[in-house]
Design a protein that fits this description.
4 helices, rod-shaped, 42% strand, two-stranded antiparallel sheet, alpha/beta
C-alpha cells in the first residue's frame, strides 16, 4: 500500500485549473449526516503496483491525505480506525489519442509559352496524405465514500484534466483540487 501512484499524480497536478473537469455522483436516499467518522484508504490496482509509471511520491501522498482530512474535518467528521465510512482515493492516467491528416496535391492543369506559341493541357494529378497520431495524457483523481458494513459506494467525486507543465506549489494545487471535489459532497462545511 506504500507504493503509490508519482508520475501519475504529478501529471494530474500539472494542468491549469480552467481545464479540470469536476464530476460527482451519489446514491439516492442516503442520510450523509449519520456518517460522522471516517478512515482514508488508497485504492491500488494490483497491475499498477508492478508498473513504475504508477508510483506516487510520499510527499504528494501526504499532501493529498492532509487535504482530504481537512475537508472531512470541515464537515464535522472525525478520523478513527473503526469508522462509519471509508474515504477511498485513487489517481491514474488515461491516454487519449487523436489523429490529424494533411493532404498535398500535385499535378493538374499546366500552361506555358515557348517562343511565340502557347501550350497547355492537363497532366496527371496526384496527391498524398500524411496522418499523425497525438497522445494526450489525462490525469485523474477519484475520491469515493463507502459504507464498510454494506460495502456500498455512497458518493464519488472526481477531477480530470489534460496534463500540463510543472507544478510550482503542489500543496496549494492539491488542496484546491480536493476542495473543489468536496464542494460537491452532500454535507456542507460546518465550521
Amino acid at each position: 500500500m506504500n507504493r503509490l501512484l508519482t508520475l501519475v499524480f504529478i501529471a494530474f497536478l500539472g494542468f491549469s485549473c480552467s481545464s479540470i473537469k469536476y464530476t460527482s455522483d451519489q446514491m439516492g436516499g442516503v442520510d450523509f449526516e449519520q456518517y460522522k467518522t471516517y478512515k482514508v484508504v488508497q485504492f491500488v490496482n494490483e497491475e499498477d503496483l508492478a508498473n513504475e509509471k504508477y508510483n506516487v511520491n510520499q510527499m504528494n501522498e501526504q499532501r493529498l491525505l492532509s487535504a482530504i482530512d481537512k475537508q472531512a474535518s470541515l464537515r464535522g467528521m472525525s478520523k478513527i480506525e473503526e469508522p462509519e465510512m471509508l474515504i477511498i482515493w485513487a489517481v491514474g492516467i488515461d491516454i487519449q489519442k487523436s489523429y490529424e491528416t494533411h493532404t498535398d496535391y500535385m499535378g493538374g492543369p499546366y500552361m506555358g509559352y515557348r517562343g511565340r506559341y502557347r501550350y497547355g493541357g492537363y497532366g496527371m494529378a496526384s496527391s498524398y496524405s500524411t496522418t499523425q497520431e497525438y497522445e494526450t495524457e489525462i490525469g485523474q483523481l477519484k475520491i469515493a465514500v463507502v459504507d464498510p458494513k454494506t460495502k456500498e459506494m455512497l458518493w464519488m467525486g472526481s477531477a480530470e484534466g489534460e496534463r500540463g507543465g510543472k507544478v510550482k506549489d503542489a500543496d496549494k494545487k492539491i488542496n484546491e483540487i480536493v476542495s473543489k471535489i468536496f464542494e460537491m459532497y452532500p454535507l456542507p462545511i460546518t465550521e
